[in-house]
Amino acid sequence: MIGHHLTTSGAHFAFTDRWGGVSAVPYEELNLGGAVGDAPEAVRANRGRAAAALGLDPARVVWMNQVHGAGVAVVDGPWEDGGPVPAVDALVTTRRGLALAVLTADCVPVLLADPVAGVVAAAHAGRPGMVAGVVPAAVAAMTGLGAEPGRITARTGPAVCGRCYEVPEAMRAEVAAAEPDAWAETSWGTPAVDVAAGVRAQLARLGVTDVEDAGVCTLESGDHYSYRRDRTTGRLAGYVWLDR
């Protein structure tokens, strides 16, 4: 259920896999995405199971309406029940015990924390978001709340790797013009993009040096959802929060 759960100085970082939930095929089992066609009651049950496994109250988890942009929302609690969820691709909070969640199925989930300043962030970095600068935008919002890049811990979760993320040559050139480190080639010799490498390069330029990757390619792993592999599929989640 929880593929990775790391704790650093009171900051928690967790990434799910696809198992331990109640969703039926093709969303089997632990789909946490509410906008992919799965039954809403199954998604609610899965979110409850994942939260329980992490020792979290599911009502104290903040989700996003992700749109592949660079918008950031600073939050101090969950959205109002029944109200609109803002269209953003990064969340930031200083509220201890409030978990921020990001959904992915090939894109790079980026979790950030400065426990000294008491600031955490979750970002959804797909190819368009990485190019648009969603991760630098999240770091900027964190520093505006007292974080220091040199103190920030960054963890990136399961995502499609540069050896598998095949794109047209023109797209690779466009992405590489914005972020040269994202230039890649597939294992079979065709143009590719490495979004995680682009994110790491962006973080390094900002002075964030404590960066670790989960080391899982979603397209290659049957334990994880991959939109590029399956199209109709579920969503994984990354969670970040600070101890109360």
Polypeptide structure, described:
Keywords: Copper, Hydrolase, Metal-binding, Oxidoreductase, Transferase, Zinc. Its cofactor is Zn(2+); Cu(2+). This is Purine nucleoside phosphorylase. It is a single chain. The chain is an alpha+beta fold. The chain has one domain: CNF1/YfiH-like putative cysteine hydrolases (4-Layer Sandwich). Helix content is 24%, strand content 26%. It has six helices and 13 strands. It has helices at 40-54, 127-132, 134-144, 169-178, 195-206, 227-230, and strands at 2-8, 11-16, 61-62, 72-74, 90-93, 99-104, 108-114, 119-125, 153-156, 183-185, 191-193, 210-213, 236-242. The strands form three sheets. It has a six-stranded mixed beta sheet. A five-stranded mixed beta sheet has the order 1-2-13-6-3, covered by helices on one side. Strands 10-11 form a two-stranded antiparallel sheet. Strand 7 and strand 8 form a beta hairpin. The two termini are 24 Å apart. The model has no long low-confidence stretch (mean pLDDT 96).
What is the name of the CATH topology?
CNF1/YfiH-like putative cysteine hydrolases
**CATH architecture level-2 label:** 4-Layer Sandwich
Query: What gyration radius follows from the Cα positions, in whole Å?
Result: 17 Å
CATH class: Alpha Beta
Rounded to the nearest angstrom, the distance between the terminal CA atoms is: 24 Å
* Number of individual domains: 1
Number of DSSP helical runs: 6
Element string (H = helix, E = strand): EEHEEEEEEHHEHEEHEHE
What does the overall shape look like? globular
**CATH H-tier superfamily:** CNF1/YfiH-like putative cysteine hydrolases
Task: Bin the helical content.
Answer: 10-25%
Strand line-up of the largest beta sheet: 4-5-8-7-9-12
Number of strands: 13
What amount of the residues lies in strands? Answer: 25-35%
Task: Specify the biggest β-sheet.
Answer: 6 strands, mixed
Secondary-structure-derived class: alpha+beta
Mean pLDDT: 96
Parts with pLDDT < 50 across at least 5 consecutive residues: none
Keywords: Copper, Hydrolase, Metal-binding, Oxidoreductase, Transferase, Zinc
Organism: Streptomyces termitum
GO molecular function, one term: copper ion binding
Protein name: Purine nucleoside phosphorylase
